[in-house]
Automatic annotation (TrEMBL):
Chief site of localization: membrane
Membrane-traversing stretches: 174-192, 199-219, 231-250, 276-296, 302-329, 369-391, 511-530, 537-562, 574-592, 626-643, 649-671
Species this protein is from: Streptomyces olivochromogenes
PANTHER family listed in its UniProt record: MEMBRANE PROTEIN MJ1562-RELATED (PTHR33406), MEMBRANE PROTEIN SCO6666-RELATED (PTHR33406:SF11)
Name of the protein described by the UniProt record: Membrane protein
Family: Belongs to the resistance-nodulation-cell division (RND) (TC 2.A.6) family. MmpL subfamily.
Length: 805
């Protein structure tokens, strides 16, 4: 890693040009090729899939999307000539538009009469476009909306619904991303105090997300990629891209402040935090790949898009970022920091401020802090007990949208179930008997059998309840388990509502396997990286706690409706069935990031000192601030997707924002360190037999060869001096430990009443000398010993947490 970082730093112009060329080249190729996203929901071995297969054979699917114009009158009926004279000309003009395949009017004979409500107050017309919803030009859809709504007024209300209509309601593309980036920029500027330092993580995220999205767009021509994939890829790409760069830039700035040359500081940052970024990016991709075990084929494209974006974000962080750091040099610091560095010299190697005080508090009161954190997470997780998976539709849109108004008008005029009719597809048996049985079933409002084709009869069934109602799910089960068998027919229940129910069932059944897979893979990775059984077990438990609490928040907001009106997210309903799989993948990957950055610093300190309390205290003090800043950026980016206009993305954004906030602010900075203090040295336990068999995967940089005693290198020598407090008084009983660079203890002594100490050094070379004392903080220093005895005094400050980079 150090070699790569140094090469990129020194050849920064070449690296920058390569990345710019890649971004522009992929962008040009994607622009010329266009998009070919396809929403393919394949649910093998489900009843709704068998119904769909039969319908596809007998009734080839129409080429275009079908949307609806709905109108209602305050007085009279929709059959009045005054109403027809305004609506029919508008429908005629829509029918003549290029790109519109046809319009089915309620005023067209007996067939159209079914499109008028029983009380005559509400009617609808169906518009069939020549293309599917995603391919219909927005200009055409807007013309349709304007033409239809132009008939409004004088007690006539006109609304439109459908997938194509919904697209023109969405905010401009990129609005959510821009707001998320601006919010991240504010947080970065407050954290760094430097414009250049602020721009670095944002630039890395833009390059990573841009190349990832363009690549995904090109791949959509050779494999099935749903249109949800680029939105989720942007969601995760912006978050991890900014975060990964933030971790590296923070380490680099700290190195410069401590007197390192900018090049050496950048190389060191990439060789430490950069390794953690590589490992964290790998865990995110593995968590995303866990979606493949669900065997839900439409998620394959989501895995491709999000994983590609993460990979490009990691590559940008470890190659482009050191190049940009080379262009900036010391300007990565603020002007005030540069002036202070020039006037006062390097800063001492210690963590101070609130992070150090909080770290000390966790060490003093681990039990009470752990209990409080568990109680908070448990309360937030309570709503998850009523979690109900399903599918959102236009009935969940905001009440001010035309799609929601059209949905409500259709429900008012034709019943709640009209927005989600069932299709019973019969291939053999007595159709009349089946129709009679369905009509006599509780919960059925209307039944109509269409003329058979190629031995297949489709029976349209309108439930009395809405598509999202649990009673509609019960009706589907009744039809499948009782009505169809009693009629002696060979039939299957399909339609959008039945597909949604089957999708929810399949997802729920496969969720335990999915969770077990990603937790198991994460456990193995952490065990190999940190040579411990307890650390990965703790991480797995924390992931489950974070998942339960974040889904509790989702249920409370989107299923119970708490705060939905404040967020402008429409009406409450079930949680999207695909969301648990996608959200758990992202959540487990992101939470693993924070676990890696936190524990890798603790592990680094543990290797050097073998002092668990110090390792946990120092690791938390040095990483909590940057983890919290990274989490705050993630929360801003995710919450910005509430403005995306896509209910699925909004739900995922809120859920992930809640998950990241709870994970970073409660679990990683409170519960995890408290638990590690309580567990003590058990954190780092690994059976000897397992230690020998596990491969080595270093998150920290490889150790340099130690200087061992040699005849030509001089004989043993000593390091001696005094340990004093901040006022210069002696510190009695301080424990001083001399360690090799690999973390092996070489000597251990206790200071005398006057604070003096002396430790034996086997041979000249580089070592680590640490000092700890009760009621004081700890201090560690790298020392370089020559042939002569070294005099080295140490100062301990009460409450201070000091650590070596």
């Amino acid at each position: 890693m150090a070699t790569l970082a140094r090469w990129c730093y020194r050849h920064r112009l070449v690296v920058l040009l390569l990345w710019v060329g890649a971004l522009l080249g992929l962008g040009a190729a994607a622009s010329s090729a266009g998009t070919d996203y396809a929403n393919v929901f394949s649910l093998p071995n489900t009843d709704s899939k068998r119904a769909y297969d039969q319908m596809e054979k007998a009734f080839p699917e129409r080429a275009g999307d079908t949307d609806t114009v709905v109108w209602k009158v305050d007085t009279g009926t929709v059959r009045d000539q005054s109403v027809q004279s305004r609506i029919q000309p508008a429908l005629d003009r829509i029918g003549k538009m290029a790109g519109v395949g046809g319009v089915t009017s309620p005023y067209a004979g007996d067939r159209g009469a079914a499109q008028i409500s029983a009380n005559g107050k509400i009617a609808y017309a169906q518009i069939t476009f020549a293309e599917q919803a995603n391919a219909v030009p927005k200009e055409l859809v807007q013309d349709v909306v304007d033409t239809a709504q132009g008939a409004r007024g004088g007690g006539l209300h006109v609304e439109l619904g459908g997938q194509a209509i919904q697209r023109v309601q969405e905010p401009p593309t990129g609005l959510a991303e821009m707001i998320g980036i601006l919010a991240a920029a504010v947080v970065l500027f407050l954290a760094f105090g430097s414009l250049f330092a602020m721009l670095l993580p944002i630039g890395i995220a833009i390059f990573g997300v841009g190349t990832g999205l363009f690549s995904t767009q090109l791949l959509s021509h050779v494999t099935s990629v749903p249109d949800l994939a680029p939105l989720l890829a942007t969601l995760i790409g912006l978050g991890v891209g900014i975060d990964y760069a933030l971790f590296i830039v923070t380490r680099h700035r700290r190195g410069i402040l401590r007197g390192m040359d900018p090049e050496e500081s950048a190389v060191t940052a990439l060789n430490t935090s950069g390794r953690a970024v590589l490992f964290a990016g790998g865990t995110v991709c593995i968590a995303l790949a866990g979606m493949l075990v669900t065997n839900l084929r439409f998620l394959d494209g989501v895995v491709i898009g999000t994983s590609l974006t993460v990979v490009f974000s990691v590559l940008a962080a470890v190659t482009l970022l050191p190049a940009l750091l080379g262009f900036l040099g010391s300007r990565v610091l603020s002007r005030r920091q540069r002036r202070k560095l020039a006037a006062e010299g390097p800063e001492p190697e210690r963590a101070s401020g609130f992070a150090a005080r909080w770290s000390a508090s966790v060490q003093k009161r681990p039990r009470s802090i752990a209990v409080m954190a568990v109680v908070v997470m448990a309360i937030l997780a309570i709503p998850v007990l009523s979690l109900r998976l399903g599918a959102t539709d236009q009935g969940n849109d905001d009440a001010s949208t035309t799609t929601r108004k059209a949905y409500d008008l259709l429900a008012e005029g034709f019943g709640p179930g009209f927005n989600g009719p069932l299709q019973v597809v019969s291939t053999s048996g007595d159709t009349n008997k089946l129709v009679q049985g369905i009509r006599a079933t509780d919960g059925v409002a209307q039944v109509a059998a269409l003329p058979p084709a190629q031995g297949v009869t489709v029976i349209q069934v309108v439930p009395t309840t809405s598509p999202q109602s649990e009673k509609t799910d019960q009706l589907i089960d009744t039809l499948r388990d009782k009505v169809i068998p009693d009629a002696g027919a060979q039939a299957h229940v399909g339609g959008v509502t039945a597909i949604s129910k089957d999708f929810s069932t399949v997802t729920g059944d496969r969720l335990p396997l999915f969770v077990a897979t990603i937790i198991g893979l994460g456990f193995l990775l952490l065990m190999v990286a940190f040579r411990s059984l307890v650390v990965p077990l703790t991480a797995a438990l924390m992931n489950l706690i974070a998942a339960a609490a974040s889904f509790g928040v989702l249920v409370a907001i989107f299923q119970w409706g708490w705060g939905l009106s404040l967020l402008g997210l429409g009406k409450e309903g079930p949680i999207n069935a695909f969301l648990p799989v996608i959200m758990l993948s992202l959540l487990f990957g992101l939470s693993m990031d924070y676990q890696v950055f936190l524990v890798s610093r603790m592990h680094e300190e543990w290797v050097h000192t073998k002092d668990n309390a110090r390792a946990v205290r120092v690791g938390l003090a040095e990483t909590s601030r940057v983890i919290n800043s990274a989490a705050l950026i993630m929360v801003c980016v995710f919450l910005a997707f509430v403005l995306s206009g896509d209910s699925g993305a909004a739900m995922a954004g809120v859920g992930l924002a809640a998950a990241v906030a709870l994970d970073a602010f409660i679990l990683r900075t409170a519960l995890v360190p408290a638990a590690m203090h309580l567990l003590g040295k058990s954190n780092w336990w690994l059976p000897a037999g397992l230690e020998k068999r596990l491969p080595h995967l270093a998150v920290e940089p490889a150790e340099e060869a130690e200087s061992l005693p040699r005849a030509s290198a001089g004989g043993p020598t000593v390091v001696h001096g005094f340990v004093r407090d901040a006022e210069g008084g002696p510190v009695d009983g301080a424990v001083l430990t001399l360690l090799s660079k690999g973390g092996r203890q070489l000597d251990r002594v206790t200071s005398l009443a006057d604070g003096s100490y002396i430790v034996s050094v086997p041979a000249p070379g580089a070592y680590l000398l640490s000092a700890t004392a009760s009621s004081y903080g700890a201090r560690a220093r790298h020392i370089l010993v020559t042939d002569e005895p070294l005099v080295h005094d140490l100062e301990l400050t009460e409450g201070e947490v000091d650590a070596v980079n």
